[in-house]
Please model this.
Amino acid sequence: MNKAPTSGKIASVEGYGKQQMIASNRFSAQHKDVLAAVLTDGESYTIDAALRRIQQFEKRSVK
Model:
């Protein structure tokens, strides 16, 4: 088997869809509501990306 050389890092980062994030036990009910509002169907997100989206939503200013 020929494997492409790597630099010790993972070549691709696993992502999850919007529905997978919402169904996950990792997030509270309130955070799932936020994810339902801020994530896009058909896109994939890492856990870190989802957490960043939640933080951005919580820090937004209300007009």
In short: Residues 16-59 form one domain.
